[in-house]
Amino acid sequence: MIRIATGDDAAAFHAIYLPHVLEGVATFETVPPGVEAMRERVLARLEQYPWLVWEEAGAVLAYAYASRFRERAAYDWIAETSIYVRPEAQRRGIARRLYGALLDTMRMQHIYQAVGVITLSGTTSVAAHEAMGFTPAGVWRQAGYKLGQWWDVGVWQKALGEPANPPPPLIPFRELREHPAWQARLTRAD
Fold first, then answer.
1. For residue 103, what pLDDT is reported?
2. Helix, strand, or coil here: 4?
């Protein structure tokens, strides 16, 4: 089942995210945020952007969310995406379906570009993004230092639609989530 995240999911998100903070480079965060900080992140992000969950038999197996790409107003129609999947749930198509639901939601918000930021080599993440239609947009050389070495970061970009000129205002997720068309699309995604 795909559903909207809640603050009550914070412990499950923390458990999925923690190994990436401590042992991996999917995130450049180096200090675990804690469950309460995860709860605050979820609730704050849901005001403007989607945060979706893949749940089976009451267990959170994956989550995906969008976030503001840059602070300037001209960037309102582009968002950065992130997805994390529990290791035992990988290679089951969950990421593809969850990411698809996230991108569909972003389209409905009038977001025209999605950006995935991937620590390189990140071959699994690169393949997953390219399978979703993302294309390489550039590399930030030696962008982050973690686990005793410098890492390059690749940027992948996906057009979510033809941008209008002028563009309509972004629809905050807090408004979109109640819309029947979004509810119907979410049901079809899972």
1. 97
2. strand
Find residue 56's DSSP bridge partners.
59
User: What integer pLDDT is reported at residue 178 of this predicted model?
Assistant: 78
Q: CA-CA distance, 60 to 108, in Å (whole number)?
A: 25
**Spatial separation of the C-alpha atoms in residues 82 and 99, rounded to whole Å:** 9
Among 99, 112, 107, 8, smallest CA distance to 54 is for 99
Contact criterion met (CB below 8 Å) for 112 and 77: yes
Note the pLDDT tens digit of each residue in 162-178: 999 999 999 999 999 87
**Residue type at 85 in one-letter notation:** V
Token representation of residue 117: 């930021």
141 and 152 in contact (C-beta within 8 Å)? yes
Q: For residues 135 and 115, give the distance between their C-alpha atoms in angstroms, rounded to a whole number.
A: 9
Closest to 125 measured CA to CA, from 21, 27, 22: 27
For residue 73, the 8-state DSSP code is G
Encode pLDDT of 75-86 as tens digits.
999 999 999 999
The whole-chain average pLDDT of the chain stands at 93
Contact in structure between 9 and 67 (CB atoms under 8 Å): no
